[in-house]
Every structure is written in C-alpha cells, then in structure tokens.
TrEMBL record:
Annotated protein name in UniProt: DUF2388 domain-containing protein
InterPro entries named among the record's database cross-references: CHP02448
UniProt keyword DNA-binding present: no
Highest taxon above the source species: Bacteria
Signal peptide segment: 1-21
Organism: Pseudomonas paralactis
Keywords, ordered alphabetically: ATP-binding, Helicase, Hydrolase, Nucleotide-binding, Signal
GO molecular function, one term: helicase activity
Protein's UniProt keywords contain Hydrolase: yes
Amino acid sequence: MSRLRLLCTAAVLTLAANANASSFIMTTDSIVGALKATSDATSDATSSLRDNKVVQAARDDAASFVASEGAIRGVKLESALAHIRQQAPQLAIATDAQLAQAILAI
C-alpha cells in the first residue's frame, strides 16, 4: 500500500512541476512580448525624431532649458516640443524637461 501512495505522490508532484513550469514560461513570454512591443514603439518614435531638422535645431535651446531648470525656454525648443507631441503621441505624457533631455540624448 505504501508503494502505491509513493507512486501516486510522485505522479502528482511531477504533474504539478510541469504545470508550474509551463505557467512560468507563458508568463515570461507575455512580459517579454509586452516589453518588446513598448521598446519597438519607443525606438521607432525616437529614430524618426533623431533625423528631424526641427528637433536637431532645438538642441541648444534644450541645453539652456535643462541647465536653467526650465527658466529659459527658447522658440526652437517650443517648436520642437510641439512637433514631438504631434509626431509621437505616445510621448505626449512626457514633461517638457524629459523631452528636452531626450533631445539632448539623441
């Protein structure tokens, strides 16, 4: 009788381990897929802005804005911020300071 219980316990543990492993794999696949989609969207947005003349022209104004902690707002920076928010709606929630830093980074 104890052999039967031991065999049943081993079978249940094996099934439970397989269920947990497949659940873990499905969860990580979902998370990785979501991160990849977000990364691709952000990459597409920044690469299209990287080559934009309006954004490139605002680099000096962005540097002044960041250095003065928002006190100096140049016309080219204002134009670039409006352009970025129009071209990349997913970046519309970013603050002016975040976008100015992004302009300096690209």
